[in-house]
Amino acid sequence: MISSDFPRNILVSDFDGTLTQVDFFQAVLERLLGGDLSIWHSYCQGKITHFEALAGYYQQIRLSEISLKDLVAGLGFPTQFSLLLGQLRLANWDLVIASAGCEWYIRQLVDAQKLENPPMIHANNGTYSAEFGLIMELPRDSPHFDPSIGISKVSVVKSLQGPNHWVAFAGDGPTDLAPALLVEPHLRFAKGSLARLLAERAEYFIPFDHWAEIPFHLIRYYSK
After folding, report:
1. Model's pTM, two decimal places?
2. Inter-residue contact 54 to 25 (CB < 8 Å)
3. For the chain, which domains are there?
């Protein structure tokens, strides 16, 4: 058993499109809202924040809670998440989830694992009702609060960095670029838009298709 005094390594992971195969936002946009990009265009034009764009879409959801939970269950969360998390911890790695999405649907998938010690989650607050949709709120009391996206992944990564341990980062989107650049290149995992942005900058990263590849890599090469 590893001593509790031994510095533990930390994997900071994005959620949508990283821990899951399908981004919750994309699923809502395409399956429930007909692909309407008007709000997203306002964000791209700088008229509203990233948080306001997501919140604007999510409050339009009109499904029974059971139906929305079924949609969440189909996002492609790792089927062996509990086993992978346990193996990471035995290899002296802890997991921290950092997301610009909503904790409501993240909790649906993490809590379904019935973990005795679930990972720390930094995400936007939210509640759901079929009448008012998914109401996402800024986490103003979070030490990692950012008014434009809710949770600053840069702040999360910086708060965890220190001597005598490793911090790795995994992500898939444009908002993951800044935090990815904070970690050592050999501990940087990327797919999707993040991988393209890093490649354009000639920055080294480890590509992945499924999140399960990341624990295997860390355990093989970076266990203490």
Report:
1. 0.95
2. yes
3. 9-21+78-124+137-221 (3.40.50.1000), 26-73 (no CATH)
